[in-house]
Design goal:
This protein is of the alpha+beta class and 86 residues long. It is built from two helices and four strands, in the order ααββββ. The chain has a domain of 43 residues. The mean pLDDT is 76.
Length: 86
């Protein structure tokens, strides 16, 4: 088994005040790598109202992507609120 001897100057540089911030930075770097990924999720939400501002419950709502033609359908709730989750 090999033994490693550090010169006093190197041992002072590797002291606890140096290691604690270095280890903390390494932990932050490694744990934040996965959280920086972006996702292509979103939501469209709104309220269906008539011209007087009264809500319209159970209204059929359609959201259509004009580029792809993809159409999503939902109904508003009893308060006129609709939500598209993707």
């Amino acid at each position: 088994m090999a033994k490693v001897f550090l010169r006093p100057s190197i041992a002072k540089r590797l002291s606890l005040p140096f290691l604690v911030p270095a280890v903390a930075a390494l932990v932050l770097l490694l744990t934040s790598a996965g959280s920086s990924a972006q996702t292509d999720q979103g939501a469209i939400t709104g309220v269906v109202e008539d011209s007087t501002g009264a809500v319209i419950p159970n209204a059929q709502v359609t959201a259509t992507n004009i580029d792809t033609g993809l159409a999503l359908e939902t109904k508003s709730n009893s308060s006129g609120v609709f939500v598209f989750l993707r």
